[in-house]
Amino acid sequence: MTEIYDFGKTCKGEKTCLFQITNMQGAFATVTNYGCTLVSLFVPDKNDALTDVCLGYETLQEYEKSDGYLGMLVGRCANRIAKGKFSLNGKNYTLAVNNGVNHLHGGINGFSSKVFGFEVKGNTIKFTAVSDDGEKGYPGKITLTACYSFTDENELILKYNAVSSEDTIINITNHTYFDLNGQGSGHAMEQKAMIFSRGITEIDENLIPTGKIISPEKNSPFDFSNLKPLCRDLNADNPQLKIAGGYDHNFVLNGDYDSSYGIFGLRKAAYLVGDDTSIAMEVYTTQPGMQMYTANFLTDRKGVIRKRYTKNAGVALETQNFPDAINHKEFPSPVLKQGEIYSHTTIYKFLTV
After folding, report:
1. In whole angstroms, what is the distance from residue 146 CA to residue 227 CA?
2. Is 249 a catalytic residue?
3. 3-state secondary structure at position 95
4. Which residue, among 146, 159, 176, 168, has the nearest Cα to 344 in the 3D structure?
5. Which one of 103, 105, 175, 344 is the catalytic residue?
6. Which helix or strand (DSSP H or E) is residue 336 part of?
7. Burial class of residue 239 in the structure, from the number of CB atoms within 10 Å of its CB (0-12 exposed, 13-18 middle, 19+ buried)
8. What Rg, from alpha-carbon coordinates, does the chain have?
9. Is the dihedral of CA 347, 188, 288, 145 positive or negative?
10. What is the pLDDT of residue 261?
11. What is the pLDDT of residues 97-135, one digit of tens each?
């Protein structure tokens, strides 16, 4: 069942809505069509008490004014593009620089700040938005569809499809910060994680991939082959961690990929557990990579129900293509050709252990 509520108007006067998708167990996801943003996600804990496991805000204005991309769909190109520059079909393009010297998450006012059209069918919401040719410096007119479903099995299913009027680049993801111990618990870095990966893409001092894939040694900070608390190695004496102030790295997921923008079959990418609640989350995706970001740059702010969010208040598990892929021929291609369809699926499945 999906209920629709008014969520106010943007600073431009655009009307927004809040959608609550409730399953047969009474668990529910709340989403707004402003940036296809996941506002809250209430799932049962070990005592069957519903617990909100994602960071969010109470008002539309907070989403408009705040950084951090809490719960938002980001793109055209999620993650970083070095110096906001790339070449495609022999032509050079320059994008907005909004993260130091880099372009990040589609730049200022990307898909994360668009008001999407919507269509509701049962427990699924189909969101649609357009990014015009030349918008933020990108070539081609992109029509993006994002379908959000919340099933009776406590699965949040995100499906993305896009077409372009000409060759372009694309990389769509969701930027929810999870705290399975309950949003604002203060124990987010005590969550335990396992990642099904063969390594990370090494980053330079500007958090841009060097092109090298590092395979971690056993029990090293980037070895998540077994469950371990995020805090265990968060402040370890490791050059990659020091560059990012914690984890802000693309994990190269297990499996082979098709050279056409990194298509995998759906498979498990990660497993996350909150010991306080015994809530666990399995992540499945068709993407080749997953950025694990431990909110290293999140500043103090007000969340929901009088909670405060500060540095390391949650962990984002952003399924994606590799960062700066357009500038690395050895990475899965982010190019979407005219007439082709960009299509990816990510599933966040919740259970108790």
Report:
1. 31
2. no
3. coil
4. 159
5. 175
6. strand 335-336
7. exposed
8. 19
9. positive
10. 46
11. 999 999 999 998 899 999 999 999 999 999 999 999 999
pLDDT tens track for 311-324: 999 999 999 999 99
Q: What is the pLDDT of residues 275-307, one digit of tens each?
A: 999 999 999 999 999 999 999 999 999 999 999
Which DSSP letter does residue 205 get?
Answer: T
DSSP state of 137: G
The amino acid sitting at 41 is: L
Pairing relation of β-strands 228-229 and 308-309?
Answer: unpaired
pTM: 0.96
- DSSP-derived pairing of the beta strands 209-214 and 267-274: unpaired
Q: What tokens appear for 303 in the block?
A: 């969340």
| Residue 30 to residue 50: CA distance in whole angstroms | 13
Mean pLDDT of the 19-37 span: 98
Alpha-carbon span 214 to 199, nearest angstrom: 5
What type of residue sits at position 227?
L
Q: Which CB contacts under 8 angstroms, 24+ apart, belong to 5-10?
A: 7/32, 7/34, 7/60, 8/59, 8/60, 8/61, 9/60, 10/34, 10/60, 10/64, 10/115
Identify which of 101, 110, 277, 294 has the alpha carbon closest to the alpha carbon of residue 195: 294
Report how far apart the first and last C-alpha atoms of the chain are (Å, whole number). Answer: 27
How far is the C-alpha of 270 from the C-alpha of 265, rounded, in Å?
15
Residue 135 falls in the annotated catalytic set = no
Under CATH, which architecture does the 2-352 domain have? Distorted Sandwich (2.70)
Q: How far apart are CA 172 and CA 328, in angstroms?
A: 18
Active-site residue, selected from the candidate residues 103, 318, 328, 344: 318
| pLDDT, position 265 | 82
